[in-house]
Amino acid sequence: MSRVRQTVTLTADLVILTIRNGTLCVLVVERGNEPFAGHLALPGGFLRGDESLDETAARELAEETGMRAEGLHLRQVGVYSAPDRDPRSPRVVTCAYLAIAPDLPLPAAGSDARSAHWLPVVEVQRMGLAFDHDRILSDALELARAELQFRTIATAFCGEEFTIAELRKVYEVIWGVKLDKSNFHRKVTDADGFIVPTGGKRPTGNGRPAALYRAGEATTLSPPMMMPRSSDV
Amino acid sequence: MSRVRQTVTLTADLVILTIRNGTLCVLVVERGNEPFAGHLALPGGFLRGDESLDETAARELAEETGMRAEGLHLRQVGVYSAPDRDPRSPRVVTCAYLAIAPDLPLPAAGSDARSAHWLPVVEVQRMGLAFDHDRILSDALELARAELQFRTIATAFCGEEFTIAELRKVYEVIWGVKLDKSNFHRKVTDADGFIVPTGGKRPTGNGRPAALYRAGEATTLSPPMMMPRSSDV
DNA sequence: AAAATAGTGTCTATCAGACACTATTTG
DNA sequence: CAAATAGTGTCTGATAGACACTATTTT
User: Fold this and answer.
1) Which pLDDT value is given to residue B9?
2) What residues does the Nudix hydrolase domain cover (chains A, B) (predicted)?
């Protein structure tokens, strides 16, 4: 029996990241059903007969956050298929997706009869998640760190309009480093199609108001924004 | 029916790359069974009940090439789950893997009752593959190009011992560029744990014999070997 | 004016690319 | 010696990081 092909059910699980109050947060749900009822887990859902897993992920993302998935950063992290990762039968295999959201209010709780919350990533890692979702979360974070270097996804954490300081904060929070203000400014304004000035300004309370930008057309970042190498050493 | 969770069968498909006579080649099989009987396709196999997809991929790799998968570069490319990608029922979803092999003789043909061949990638792309394997192949190639920059996988294309010229040829073939001999030499010898001199020399027919190296301990390449940016411009 | 934040200019160490040069082999 | 390939040295332009400086706002 172990040597024959097996039928499984497929889920798409989502690691939806955002930045709130300068802290990297992830959307987690409290599970209502077994297995792991009452435990925290990543949001996700089952593949339907008429859709691909990418479509499953986009549908779940829309249900959980109200975001339209079109033009949104939604990227496969990997497949998690250990035979014992989920006690259910038929066996459940999942494909994890990374999504990035601006700091949005969540739709009314209970839209999916589950309670969804933004929680700081560090706190989630301390508490632990159901299934193999701890591993999925850390893999997704690693992917996000790498993608920041080569793709223009950092703007997805910001609203429609943002300042360069806000964009810099994205890099600092996800990479866990402090970046030089001047050098960052130079690099993002030089990068081709990364950000476009809107002409507007945003008063910041104290100090000179910052110029506003919106995301440019480019999806890849050239030249790349390399993560400081001091951490490897 | 389309709105309920669906059971599927899972396969792991392999994009196994090697370099033969200075040409990038991929292992393809001629399908013996429907669907697509007689067509070329990527090797692959069904998930069994006692294994993960990573293990399925490693098992198939061993069956097709005779390589032991331990310590071998085997990396998920992505999941391909379009509802119409395979006409069979129950629906077939695949996870593609990238593997890299030195220039090995294949095990006796017909080990899996299928004929496996190394074919140049460009020729395979011209002829076309079954299912969505054309797309999988091009995604795997893109991944291989990117991984060459940051991981020490180039040595996996070479035998146990290799010269720096052979290693350079790997980069040149996969990136499709010509690299400067001196600068390449400097970069690979400076990179930490990338290659280790064995002390041996290999006569190349004509000319000064080249020093031999073996793969070092490092898996990530620091500093990275950046692909020349001229191609983007 | 002081404080605070945005943004610019400039110096320097480092590194990639170009390329001339030396070294060691075969014929 | 000529040819061929391996390997070294050096110059230069581009870029990242450090940091001093200017600009514009609120209190």
Assistant:
1) 97
2) 9-143
- Decide if B55 contacts B46 (C-beta within 8 A): no
Chain A, 177-196: which CBs lie within 7 Å of strand C?
A: 181-183, 185-186, 189
Report the amino acid identity of residue A184: F
The better pLDDT of the pair A109, A122 is held by A122
Looking at domain B9-144, what is its CATH homologous superfamily?
Nucleoside Triphosphate Pyrophosphohydrolase (3.90.79.10)
Residues 6+ apart with CB under 8 A from A149: A221, A224, A225, A226, A227
Whether B163 CB is under 7 Å from strand D = yes
- What is the total residue count of chain B? 233
> Which CATH entry fits the domain spanning A152-231: 3.40.50.40, 1.10.10.10, 3.90.1150.10, 2.60.40.1930?
1.10.10.10
Would you tell me which CATH number, out of the four given (3.30.70.890, 3.40.50.300, 2.70.70.10, 3.90.79.10), belongs to the domain A9-140? 3.90.79.10
Mean pLDDT, rounded, of chain B = 91
Q: Is A49's CB within 8 Å of B95's CB?
A: no
pLDDT tens figures, A97-107: 999 999 988 76
Residues from chain B contacting residue A46 (CB–CB below 8 Å): 5-6
**Strand stretches in chain A, DSSP E:** 7-20, 23-30, 40-41, 44-46, 74-80, 92-100, 115-120, 195-202, 210-215
Q: Nearest residue on chain B to A220, judged by CA atoms?
A: B232
Would you state the CATH architecture of domain B153-231?
A: Orthogonal Bundle (1.10)
Any strand D atom closer than 7 Å to A199 CB: no
Q: Which nucleotides of C are covered by protein (CB under 7 A)?
A: 3-10, 15-20, 23-27
Q: Is the CB of B230 under 7 A from strand D?
A: no
Per-residue confidence (pLDDT) for residue B233, from 0 to 100: 32
Residues 170-189 of A, Cβ under 7 A from nucleic strand D: 180-183, 187
Mean pLDDT of B87-93: 94
Alpha carbon distance A226, B89 (integer Å): 46
Say if residue A109's pLDDT is above 70: no
Tokens of B3: 């709105």
Per-residue confidence (pLDDT) for residue B112, from 0 to 100 = 54
Give me the pLDDT at residue A1, please. 52
In the 141-200 segment of chain B, residues within 7 Å (Cβ) of strand C are 180-183, 186-187
Whether the beta carbon of A223 falls within 7 A of nucleic chain D: the reply is yes
Mean pLDDT score, A172-190: 96
Q: Does the beta carbon of B53 lie under 8 angstroms from any beta carbon of chain A?
A: yes
